[in-house]
Amino acid sequence: MKVKVVNIEGKDTGKSVELNDSIFGIEPNEHAVYLDVKQYMANKRQGTHKSKERGEITGSTRKIKKQKGTGTARMGSIKSPVLRGGGRAFGPRPKDYSFKLNKKLKVLARKSALSYKAKNENIIVVEDFAFDAIKTKSIVNIQNNLKISDKKSLLVLTGVNNNIYLSARNIKGFNVALVSELNTYVVTDNNKIVFVESAVTELNNMFN
Fold first, then answer.
1. Global pTM?
2. How many helices (H) and strands (E) are present in the chain, helices listed first?
């Protein structure tokens, strides 16, 4: 699959890049995408939620009223969950939500996500560029030139470029990532994926 290369002004450069069919042209596996996104989100959970149960509440252990003859329900502890200030019944406890997936499945999921984007023509390739200074307006101009200002977009670079990253940091719905950091969640979470030309080559080499 060939995609035209445009510059940051949105104009055709006359060049094109080959998107490897083994990465961008496979039959997407929806379940693999689901599992990989589920794992990504589960692994980000801290799992530190905790509430005190009746055995952890500070308070007297005396029986607060006699067992019989009061006309009301029996009550044995001031720390009972039915009383205000008592412990919580079956409250949350710290838990590790992370789980593992096979490497081959994770690779399949990433390829499936990229194939979805390619199939729906949501991949744009631009010439490699760099900023001499931090300027948010430069990123806004690129968005307008590529006609993606109204869509959540991801710019994929080959190496760390602080000027580009800091210029894009304040723009809602515009994200920057390295090609080595590309994962299924990031790809599916953005409407448009903008690759710099060298990132496509690096991505092909990474999967091969």
1. 0.83
2. 7, 6
